[in-house]
Amino acid sequence: MQYRHLGSSGLRVSALSFGAWVTFGDQIGEDTALEMMKAAVDAGVNFFDNAEAYSAGKAETMMGNVIKRAGWKRSDLVLSTKIFFGAGASGPNDRGLSRKHVVEGTTAALKRLQTDYVDLVFCHRPDRTTPIEETVRAMNYLIDQGMAFYWGTSEWSAEEIREAYEVARREHLVPPTMEQPQYNMLHRERVEREYARLYDAFQLGLTVWSPLASGILTGKYDQGIQEGTRFTLEGYEWLRQRLESDEGKRQVKAVRDLKPIADDLGASRAQLALAWALKNPHVSTVITGASRAEQVRENMKAIDVAEKLTPDVMETIEQVLGTRPAPLEMYGRD
Q1: Average pLDDT over residues 114-120
Q2: Is residue 180 part of a domain?
């Protein structure tokens, strides 16, 4: 396993990490979760990602139970939660990024995870009804109280991240260290273009999610949607609609055309997609998911595949995908 610094911080996270989204609390039981997390730890994974919203808090409860059963040393793990959507409660202050929900939501997440602190806490989405300064101060409070060590954002715009950073510096508070965006071969604009100026300015680190584009990049949908996949789960109808759109059909064709490249490298298309994301120098860690321990073990092999992605291979992949964002200069320097 490789370990990379999280942005400009001294914290080192495994280049491949493991997340609880979709599967924990919805698709698998605790015994399977234990098997998968053990497979990840055996491969050198130290970062495990979660959120209050995942399965309305049940994903955090399951992960906390697994860590307790496995008996892992807490200091060997990097754990995260994300605050915004709440954990299923319906009160007017049970979601968002107000100081009240940030503090109460994180406190509840710690109880579910059975830990005194999380290493990382993310603002799961921007809250445009709460002043950014209030949110920055609330995040700083979590760090001052030892409830979290670093804070960051998830799916915030570059402008919002910049404002949060500038507020923190002006008020002598801790600025965001990381952002958690979606990033994969089919979804690149935000990471490669919108955030381009943030990397040098703030040394922003990325913990990217959905590196397999919800499974599309594995090739499992080459022949259409299969029963039992996340595209057939209740609450994920938006994924099915996306895949069945004209753009989705074009993406499936591109994924089919990636197979010869993967075959030449002795890799699966899933491993190729993970390795491709790892090649981005701004990515601190690629968050993987799985529903079986064997999938975890196969995903971890992407570390070796990344070493085979020469500039020529990367350019061949680009020609197949056709998803490279236009150069930043084309959009001016406003």
Answers
A1: 98
A2: yes
